[in-house]
Amino acid sequence: MSGAVLSVQDVGWSPGRGHTLLSGVSFDVPAGKVLGVAGANGAGKSTLLRLLYRFHKPVTGTVRLDGEDIWSMSARETAQKVAAVLQEQPGDFALSVREIVELGRRPHGSGFARGGRRDTEIVDEALERMGLNDLSARSLGTLSGGERQRVMVARALAQKPQLLILDEPTNHLDIRHQLEIVTLISSLNITIVTSLHDLNLAGRVCDQVLLLHKGRSLGFGTPEEVLTPTHIEQAYSVFVRQERLSQSHEQYLTFHL
Ligand SMILES: Nc1ncnc2c1ncn2[C@@H]1O[C@H](COP(=O)(O)OP(=O)(O)OP(=O)(O)O)[C@@H](O)[C@H]1O
C-alpha cells in the first residue's frame, strides 16, 4: 500500500441555507502521514471526515488527492483510493465476517465472485492482521461492538486504500485492542486521517493534529504546536495541566473543570 497526498483547501459545508457547520478549513497531509482531528462534541469532526470520503460535497473549497479533486473522479475511483471506518456501521448483520471483509475488494471490481486468488490473499491478510481468523465464519450480528469494529477495519484494509479515514477508531475497544489499533495506524504506509477524543493518544500517534472548534480550525500543526493548554482550554472549556510522567518522562495532559 502507498499513501496519497491529501490537500484540503478552504472547505466549508452546510446542510442548508444559513446553517454553516464547517467553514474555511485548510490543511495538507503528506503521503503516509497520520493526521488526528480533535475537538469537542459537535465541533465538526465527523462532518469534515464526510467531506474527505466523498459523502458530502463541500459547499466551498476543494479536497484533492495527489492533486486531483475527488469530485472530478468517479465514485468508484474514489472508493479505490479512500476507505472509511465509521462510528455508525451499515447493518449487514447476516453476513459472515469473511463476507464483510470481502466487500472491501468490490471497488476494485476484480470479480471476487469468481474467487480471484489475489483477492483471497488480500482478504486472508486483512483477517489475520486484525486477529479475526477464529471469527471469520461468524455472522456480524453475533459479534461484540469491539469485534465488529475490528471487522470494519479489516474491510477497510482489504480495500487497499491510499487514504484511510477513521472516525474514533478506538471506540468500543478494550485496552489491548486500542493499543493494537494504534500500532496498526503507526505501521501502515498509507495516509490516515483519524478523529480522536483521547488527546494524549493523539499526541503519541499523529504526525499532525487539526483542532476544530465550532466548525473552524483552531490550530493545525504538530501535536506539540497544537495540543497546548491554551488551545485545549478554548476548544473544550476545561482547565489543562501539562505534567511529566515520572517513569517515562513523557508529557501527559490532565483535564479539570
Ligand atoms: N446533516 C446535518 N444537519 C444538521 N445538523 C448537522 C448535520 N450533520 C451534523 N450536524 C450538526 O453539526 C454539528 C457537528 O457535528 P459532527 O458530527 O461533525 O460533530 P463531531 O465533532 O463529530 O461531534 P462528536 O464528537 O459528538 O462525534 C453538530 O451540532 C451536529 O448536530
TrEMBL record:
Signal peptide: none annotated. GO terms for molecular function: ATP binding. Belongs to the ABC transporter superfamily. It comes from Roseibium porphyridii. SUPFAM superfamilies: P-loop containing nucleoside triphosphate hydrolases. InterPro entries: AAA+_ATPase (IPR003593), ABC_transporter-like_ATP-bd (IPR003439), ABC_transporter-like_CS (IPR017871), P-loop_NTPase (IPR027417). This is ABC transporter ATP-binding protein. Pfam families: ABC_tran. Keywords: ATP-binding, Nucleotide-binding. It comes from the Bacteria. Residues 6-239 form the ABC transporter domain.
